[in-house]
Specification:
Blueprint (H helix, E strand, L loop, with lengths): L1 E6 L5 E5 L9 E12 H12 L2 H7 L1 H14 L1 H13 L1 E3 L3 E9 L12 E5 L9 E5 L3 E3 L6 H4 L2 H14 L6 E5 L3 H12 L3 E6 L2 H9 L4 E4 L6 H8 L4 E6 L7 H9 E9 L9 H7 L2 E4 L10 H4 L14 H11 L14 E6 L3 H10 L6 E5 L25 E6 L3 H13 L3 E7 L3 H11 L3 E3 L3 H4 L6 E4 L6 H10 L3 E4 L7 H13 L4 E3 L7 H11 L6 E7 L17 H18 L3 E12 L2 E11 L4 E7 L9 E7 L2 E6 L3 E6 L2 E6 L7 H14 L7 H20 L3 E2 L1
Parallel strand pairs: 9-10, 9-12, 10-11, 12-13, 13-14, 15-16, 17-18, 17-20, 18-19, 20-21, 21-22, 23-26
Antiparallel strand pairs: 1-2, 1-4, 3-5, 3-7, 3-16, 5-6, 6-8, 23-27, 24-25, 24-31, 25-26, 27-28, 28-29, 29-30
Helix pairs in contact: 2-3, 3-4, 6-7, 6-13, 18-19, 20-21, 21-23
Length: 719
Amino acid sequence: MKQVVQTGRSGGLFLREVPAPTVQPGYLLVRTRASLISAGTERMALRFAQKSLAGKARARPELIRKVMEKARRDGIRATLQAVMSHLDDPLPLGYSACGEVVAVGTGLEGRFTPGTRVAIAGAGLANHAELNLVPENLAAPVPDDVGDEAACFGTLGAIALHAVRNLQLQLGDIAAVIGVGLVGQLAIRFLTLAGVRVVAFDYDPARLALAKSGGAEAIWNLGDGDPLPALEDMTAGRSCDGILIAAATDSSEPFHLAAGLARDRARITLVGLTGTEIPYREFMHKELSLVVSRSYGPGRYDDDFEGRGMKYPPGYVPWTETRNLEETVRLMSPGRSLSLSVEPLITHRIPFEKAEDAYAMVTDNSEPHLGVVLIYGDPPASGLSRLSLRAGTPERDDRGCVMGVLGAGAFARTMLLPHLKAMDGCTLHTLVTTRGLSSGYSAENFGFSIAATDMAAVMENKDINTVLIATRHAEHAKLAAAALAAGKNVLVEKPLALNRDELNAIIDARNRSGSFFQVGFNRRFAPMAVKAAERLQALPAPRVILMRINAGALPAESWQNVPEEGHGRILGELCHFIDLARYWAGAPIRSVNAAAAQVTHGVCDDVTVTLRFADGSLATLVYTAKGDSSFSKELFEAYAGGTVITIDDFRKLTIVADGHATTETARAQDKGHAAQLDAFVSAVTAGHGAPVPEAEAIESTLATFAVLESLRSGEPVTL
């Protein structure tokens, strides 16, 4: 992997190829997607490293004392060798990043899952590197609606948030923020969210303007003279209740300014790096309190907390560095009425491959900058990867839905064609089956204009703009790809494909076509399933979903028992319930773990599956052929936000909340076939694209493949 490193002796900075870390117990292996260059902090580190030995000594006299003590103890030669060796060590840079978990160390199972996006923190941990190994207490899950570029501000946000907490201000108090670099800007936004009035002080007009747009009630350019008279007017003589110093300077001037701005017994928090000669008399007269903020919060610099995963009792330490990191990324969610927006703070987005150029700009200060974000490319394709789905929607077709149907077996004749026949918006053009008798009979019975036995009768007919594929499983992918390539909208019964190559062929055809496809995952259209989903969407994540499918044994002569034809009930039917779980969870599937009770002739009829979702939701599916077919086939339960929802065989819906149960009973079972067809035909007619996002159908299909892969390997599979 590649990583940004610096040499301590010369200060040279390089993007180097280094060995990738491996996951360790209690740690997460994270593939970086974005990292933030903290310009102030990292510029100082770079400039220190570039100093001569004498310059380093003058800048860090405490290190010289240690060197002298070692020289007296071990001798000059040994000390010199140790110093030079230390200076030759490559130094990692970076401490604030966002990425995707690729492996979870022992002891963290259930808390994090591969595929989860996390904000990560820590010098020497959250590096500017393609892969990072971070302990659990320095990682926080990122909400789905928060982008990578925003989430990589997590560590800087935690620093600012902890500093704000140290001020101990309340709604309506007045705070001064001295220095409006990244940390100062973030602090202003946190203070504003807390209802604190903010006055910002700096020498940079552009940064002051940004502070004003970020919530500062007033700003003052320190180059314009003494701010105290203006502050007296603004505060009616009360001065500031708290002062946050976020400046980076060798001067102690920020402390003199803070003493003048502070009211009696005010609190001052230092989060920047400044000179520390305080005006004693002013501090004493006003009885001012000074707190030097501990970086991200309690837990920082504690090896037991950071390195060994120790937890502090929340009753005594409610806001650790972990919680500050979590809260920062939570507040970034744009769906909140009041949110933390960091987008205005980003001045540069630079590809990770050009990190050396980015640091040259920061070190030389060659152009104005604030938030410099390194953007990492996509990782190499994994075994479960697929082609990207191109965005776009089809154009409206004034002909409406003119449909050709491929296949007219028992399922199509029973569940699909009767409803299509009754639809006003659908013209049944051509029906194709492999047997002429079946084709002719079904075409006449359901009102098709043409009966045929050759698929070309549909694929090559330009009057037909829509194809329904209801053949046996092995033909689905080939026919769907061909229909999309011919510019036709496609409704294909499940399974969409039997393997990843077939799936990629469909995606490729879809990307080249102006049409769309939908998979026959009808259960997400069932009225009871829709009501359950609407209720779940109003409840907070995560959700826990249980599905029991009493599938019953197939007749021995069934074509689905033949691996070469039916390809098993996992691909052929279990996919329905994976998709329904995806619909109810409302979040992407991240990992799949499966176990089989028995495999006979390559076909498995008894399996348990665990799905983990990006938002922490969990679904467990039990699919078995060992039960009595007289018992209900499908029982679903969902738990979220103090509510329980159950559906029994699509005949009975029960919702329990606040100690009260409401039950709905249907006269007839409805698994959503009619509603699915209505939605599909309407989409074709209106030209607004697939009713169900095609990406979700692909995801459910990949998750079904992952079930088989997990059964083969005995291990969870990450999507």
